[in-house]
């Protein structure tokens, strides 16, 4: 009997000792993971800030509603408390009967124009039973760290995929109004067109501003040649004007487009999809019993500025192809 009493006494002492040890364990928990995504900070911020997107990258929970998440461990709520555009997001996570946790996202632009993400989960007042679980099974840090790493990797893929989304729509027949414009002539590889265009557009715009010339509309490209097989193009980088301008610089000239009948196509997305937009339009022209003349006019107008709109999926471009009915002649004016 005494042995059993001593044994029970020792068990009780051990239980009290373990309970005290568990009770004095830290009441708070914090883990941070960092990751770099090759995308502008505003694009990454907007994607994370939209809870509808979380189902595409969160590796731990399945989002049935906008902010309701489910996992094998139970059900919870994720709410955004505060967001500072392109900078940070503060969220609150409520999971079953556990204390609320804070999730903090921060976004910073690196020297390479990529985005560094810092993602932190923190909680206070950890319940006794959770402290006991952590003591017995070694804590949840390694489990959370693993899921954080998987989630950030999926976020990287999801953001990049969202930037590649595009739409091509053939709007149909229209009349292109024409008019005067200032331009510089350039030749380059098609895949270098964007960079070449930016430098040329800055030059023409600077000339117009310096000489107080009224810009009468959106900038555009006047294609003189586009050879997708050999990846080569010759084009005029243009800004429309209200009247004919006599230029004092040899490489900035004045041109005039005569109004013409056209098929208009709209591309929403990265400029790398221009070739597909061209092919889609040319197929449409053929099916409509129309002809794109051998030396016909092609105008590409930029509805927004790629420098001001960081996500390529939101870039808007209109393309106008000169057309004529089959078996008729077209007059090309220089």
TrEMBL record:
Keywords: Membrane, Transmembrane, Transmembrane helix. The keyword GTP-binding does not apply. InterPro entries: GyrI-like, Reg_factor_effector_dom_sf. Residues 194-323 form the GyrI-like small molecule binding domain. SUPFAM superfamilies: Bet v1-like, Probable bacterial effector-binding domain. The chain crosses the membrane at residues 6-24. The keyword Methyltransferase does not apply. It comes from the Bacteria. This is Transcription activator effector-binding protein. It comes from Siansivirga zeaxanthinifaciens CC-SAMT-1. The lineage of its organism: Bacteria, Pseudomonadati, Bacteroidota, Flavobacteriia, Flavobacteriales.
